[in-house]
Amino acid sequence: MLKTVMQNTRKKQNIRKKELINATMSIIHETGLADPTLAAISDRAGLSSSSIVSHYFKNKQELLKETMLDFVGGFLGEMVFRVAAGKSPLEKIYALIDANFAPSQCTPEAISVWMFFWGRVPVNEDFAEIERTLEKYMINELKQALIELVPNEQVDYFAESVIAIIYGLWLRFALDPKRITLETAHKITIDLVHARIGISKP
Amino acid sequence: MLKTVMQNTRKKQNIRKKELINATMSIIHETGLADPTLAAISDRAGLSSSSIVSHYFKNKQELLKETMLDFVGGFLGEMVFRVAAGKSPLEKIYALIDANFAPSQCTPEAISVWMFFWGRVPVNEDFAEIERTLEKYMINELKQALIELVPNEQVDYFAESVIAIIYGLWLRFALDPKRITLETAHKITIDLVHARIGISKP
Amino acid sequence: MLKTVMQNTRKKQNIRKKELINATMSIIHETGLADPTLAAISDRAGLSSSSIVSHYFKNKQELLKETMLDFVGGFLGEMVFRVAAGKSPLEKIYALIDANFAPSQCTPEAISVWMFFWGRVPVNEDFAEIERTLEKYMINELKQALIELVPNEQVDYFAESVIAIIYGLWLRFALDPKRITLETAHKITIDLVHARIGISKP
Amino acid sequence: MLKTVMQNTRKKQNIRKKELINATMSIIHETGLADPTLAAISDRAGLSSSSIVSHYFKNKQELLKETMLDFVGGFLGEMVFRVAAGKSPLEKIYALIDANFAPSQCTPEAISVWMFFWGRVPVNEDFAEIERTLEKYMINELKQALIELVPNEQVDYFAESVIAIIYGLWLRFALDPKRITLETAHKITIDLVHARIGISKP
DNA sequence: GATGAATGAGGGTTCATTCAT
DNA sequence: TATGAATGAACCCTCATTCAT
Question: Which residues make Cβ contacts (< 8 Å) with residue D119, sequence separation at least 6?
Fold first, then answer.
């Protein structure tokens, strides 16, 4: 009985936290990557005062960190899941690419948040740590697949190529979504893989 | 006589402006991509008061805009010059890639300024306009070279691939310079071009 | 029966109040005489929410007032008891001095609370009233003893001297406990009494 | 010429700083030893916004520290001067006592500031350092005089007695100025000295 | 009785900008 | 040209208090 109450409380609290996190992402998108203010965030979340934030998060930085953990973590989870479902090495690579260009990552809001995140990585140690984790997982999954497709000594090099093209297309897309469609971006990446693997197997 | 005085004055004024622009870049680098404050900038420029800035620039935004014009313009000029020196289409492409990984663009400070610039493009219309110009020139030079190397209908697609990999490697390098050397980044780009052209000419 | 329940309830309530009062003193000591926050106090008392305080006290000021009543009242009671036990006028004066330097008043926490109290007297009317009561009792006890030792017209003057030296040594001790030991402080006061009475009876 | 300008500027700045310091003391007195707010201070100084304070002081703590340096320093200077003017050891002790009860230290505002200062010494390290300096000088002057009046081994003990009675009377006076006049306080101290020296020379 | 949610006021600080000199 | 003075807006954060459960 007590347990139920506590779970409900816990759940309720998490719901409100999630609402604030969502509000944060929403505001980041809306104000164009500028530092979101707590006032705007709490207003968006339907709360009346910015002081409520400290009820749920230690401070602004903590809110931002948890927002990114939620966001990047969501992507990471989806990616790992997709890759795991790949039957062959090549399929796994495709899955990884697909994850990067998945609809959930391509909404205007998601793009804004990614840009916000990347732009702050060099300044924000919390963000940097998240980025390191993200990159570790991505590069790891990629290498595990590549190792069966290319000579050992070329794995690192190929992995870097694939990651780079994904990041690059993402950046291009974010800088001006009208310049390139996601489909094209997706295709370019796949083609690159083909080309690289093609020339690596004489 | 008066003209000479005015020219001197004008020249002097430009010198001071350049000093402030350099100070701006210096501070951007030092404070880690955070919004530089006028106080920090004027201090770095050896001026004692931040109010002096409005003698040379309308406001902070104007200073930032001119800083980016100076910085991005410098890169653009160098790039155009290098490409023009290329004897063949392929050489021109190499030249364009070389320009992107040129030493002048790879100092820690230059990397910081690039990141600052890119991160603000979605927020700052002035920056966005500069970015559009930059991209127009780059893509133009690239296409002029590609048109002689690949079928017409593939030019856009190839150009986008090359630009994307450059941007991607840049982003990777900026996020963590220790993860990849510029030499590797350079080589990956060149290899990509080879691979793409390779598979496009069976 | 009902009465018993109510008494128990009343007793329980008083226990909780006392816990909060103790917590208040504990926090005052720990945070170094700064204004204690209700959050810190309720946390120290083992309660999870600061809002519980208003169940037991009207508001923060009331809690502080009752804390001081408890603390100063404790000292006052002890002092009155000690003085009453004195057999002669001189013994009563000694008892009064002893009470001021009694172990219970000399713990680091007690010193902090005294300092907090004195420092707030000029600001806090509740505290001021408590201080007036304290002083009234002390000076009264002192004068009743002195009246048998010195000429009538000098009683006020002597009383003031003794009280002042006690307060002064206390302040000195509180400002830096390492500068003077309590034993020395005690001795100085006794000596003063001797000296004063000595010269008053040629 | 330039020097004159700089001096004027410097002087002007110091004038404004002094105004803010005076405003701080004024507000401390008026709001009854509570932490003065920058808004109240700048308002009192005739400035419109609290932000101006950071033009002259790093932050609030710095303003408070300099206020106390100014205030306590003023007393210390006066005391040292008075003591130096004393012709004999006894005169020097009288001078020290006089300094403590000098009119400049006995205005209602001065009393408030002293109470504010003492109350914060245990919390504020800057204040503590000032207090240590003050006490060092006072005790030093006192001992130099006492050494010619009482046996060597009693100097410390006597000095502590005198300081304590001064502090005590001060505290008494501050807690309720109506309870004791400064004249009486002064007389009590002098009498104590007589009494102590009297009994020390059998 | 006890908890967590929510509010609103207030404070210190930063900063771009304007103005007088 | 250059400086220092001054302003006002904005922001984050703390905290006592109230309310529903």
Answer: C33, C115, C118, C119, C120, D33
What are the distances in angstroms from CA B23 to CA B16, B59, B77, C167? 10, 15, 21, 60
Strand E nucleotides, any atom under 7 Å from protein beta carbons: they are: 1-20
Residues of D in contact with C157 (CB under 8 A): 184, 188
Query: Which tens digit of pLDDT belongs to each residue from A65-93?
Result: 999 999 999 999 999 999 999 999 989 99
Q: Provide the pLDDT for residue D193.
A: 83
Rounded distance between C-alpha atoms, residue A85 and residue A101, angstroms? 17
In this complex, the residue of C33, C112, C160 whose CB is nearest that of residue D180 is C160
Tens-digit pLDDT profile for residues B97-136: 889 988 888 888 998 899 899 888 888 899 999 999 999 9
Residue nearest to nucleotide F7 (CA to C1'): D49
Q: Does the beta-carbon distance from A122 to B33 stay under 8 Å?
A: yes
Q: How far apart are CA C139 and CA C157, in angstroms?
A: 11
Contact B119 A118 (CB under 8 A): yes
d(CA A172, CA A179): 8
CB-closest option in C112, C119, C198 to D33: C119
Locus of tokens 């008892």: C95
Please say whether the beta carbons of A130 and A69 come within 8 A: yes
Q: A50 CA to E9 C1', in Å? A: 12
Question: What are the pLDDT digits (tens) for B167-178?
Answer: 898 888 888 878
Contact flag D169-C164 (C-beta cutoff 8 Å): yes
Q: How far is D50 from B145, CA to CA, in rounded Å? A: 62
**At CB < 8 A and 24+ separation, what contacts does A123-132 make?**
A123/B32, A123/B33, A123/B34, A124/A61, A124/A64, A126/A61, A126/A64, A126/A65, A126/A68, A127/A64, A127/A65, A127/A68, A130/A65, A130/A68, A130/A69, A130/A72, A131/A72, A131/B175, A131/B176, A132/B176
Cβ neighbours of residue D176 closer than 8 Å, sequence gap 6 or more: C128, C131, C132, C135
| CA-closest candidate to residue D186, choices D81, D114, D96, D118 | D96
What is the chain C residue with the closest CA to D183? C157
State yes or no: pLDDT of C114 exceeds 80: yes
Chain A residues within 8 Å of chain B (Cβ atoms): 31-34, 112, 115, 118-123, 131-132, 135, 157, 160-161, 163-172, 174-176, 179-180, 184-185, 188, 191-192, 194-196, 198-199
| D58 CA, E11 C1': Å apart | 16
pLDDT in tens, D155-190: 998 899 999 999 898 888 888 878 888 788 888 888
In the prediction, which pLDDT does C95 show? 92
DSSP C119-173: HHTTT-HHHHHHHHHHHHHHHHHHHHHHTTTS-GGGHHHHHHHHHHHHHHHHHHH
- Whether A161 sits inside 8 A of B157 (CB atoms) is no
D32 — pLDDT class (breaks 50, 70, 90): confident
pTM: 0.89
* Rounded CA separation B31/B43 (Å): 14
Q: Give the pLDDT confidence of C10-46 residue by residue, as tens digits.
A: 677 788 899 999 999 999 999 877 889 999 999 999 9
